[in-house]
């Protein structure tokens, strides 16, 4: 950072850092307990940034701990198109809905949750984007490393998510219950209070909006993005994106 004159940054961290938290909802004071290599890698990066900021007071950073970002730009031009078989539940469900995959495997139905499937705090990617805009605008106020949760505070089980996506696309999506996935935890739900107090930022898009926008992207891009990005038609231009969808403040209500 110092070598390149970059004294401030926004780090994309993850709720997975918290692991099996003692209290739900989870605030930023909860001790990190990563349960898989991805979560650990995020935790290690946060510590490196914190050490650098301690050693060199001119350095400062926000670490934004995303809960589970899903959804797409409401224009349907930008969305999630993982390479190969999706590892995350929302893009997997989208590919089942569009007919590219047969059925979802739900990893575990014996978690200590209301319906036995794991609970996550899904957050619309546009809400995540808006939080980043605020973070960039307010980077000058930060000293050291400040961590903030980006979540809604609402927990949704895998079965509830399957039902919500099924309602959006108008068909009942098939699934099987299989073994738990190693490294998964039962429940990750944010206490988003710190970002609200600090920035006045709150999410404005609910689960129905997340499903609707993800589904619109999938319908408009049934086979995903064209891999050949040299073809001009494959690249959405800033003008082709609805400017109203990226407001400064206040945020629109996409419920
Ligand atoms: O085919 C699947 C995929 C996932 N799940 C379950 O769905 C939930 C959500 O899983 P997933 O979408 O893979 O996200 P997480 O593992 O909760 O979170 C990881 O993936 C997120 C999206 O990239 C990141 O934001 C997080 O930081 C990272 O920990 C979990 O209970 C999974 O067990 C299934 O049942 N079947």
From TrEMBL:
Domain of life the protein comes from: Bacteria
InterPro entries: Epimerase_deHydtase, NAD(P)-bd_dom_sf, UDP_G4E
Pathway: Carbohydrate metabolism; galactose metabolism
Essential cofactor(s): NAD(+)
EC number: 5.1.3.2
Family: Belongs to the NAD(P)-dependent epimerase/dehydratase family.
Name this polypeptide is given: UDP-glucose 4-epimerase
């Amino acid at each position: 950072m110092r070598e390149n004159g970059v004294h401030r940054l926004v780090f994309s961290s993850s709720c997975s850092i918290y692991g099996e938290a003692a209290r739900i909802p989870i605030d930023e004071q909860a001790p990190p307990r990563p349960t898989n290599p991805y979560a650990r890698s995020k935790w290690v990066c946060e510590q490196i940034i914190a050490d650098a900021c301690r050693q060199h007071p001119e350095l400062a950073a926000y670490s934004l701990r995303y809960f589970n970002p899903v959804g797409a730009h409401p224009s349907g031009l930008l969305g999630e198109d993982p390479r190969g078989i999706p590892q995350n539940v929302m893009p997997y469900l989208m590919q089942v809905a569009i007919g590219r995959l047969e059925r979802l495997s739900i990893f575990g139905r014996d978690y200590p949750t209301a319906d036995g499937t794991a609970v996550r705090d899904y957050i619309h990617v546009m809400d995540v984007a808006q939080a980043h805009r605020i973070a960039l605008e307010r980077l000058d106020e930060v000293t050291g490393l400040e961590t903030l949760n980006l979540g809604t505070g609402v927990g949704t089980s895998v079965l509830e998510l399957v039902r919500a996506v099924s309602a959006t696309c108008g068909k009942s999506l098939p699934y099987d219950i299989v073994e738990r996935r190693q490294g998964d935890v039962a429940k990750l739900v944010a206490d988003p209070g710190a970002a609200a107090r600090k920035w006045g930022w709150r999410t404005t898009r609910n689960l129905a909006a997340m499903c609707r926008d993800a589904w619109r992207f999938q319908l408009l891009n049934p086979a995903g993005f064209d891999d050949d990005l040299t073809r001009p038609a494959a690249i959405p231009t800033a003008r082709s994106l609805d400017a109203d969808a990226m407001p400064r403040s206040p945020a629109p209500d996409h419920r």
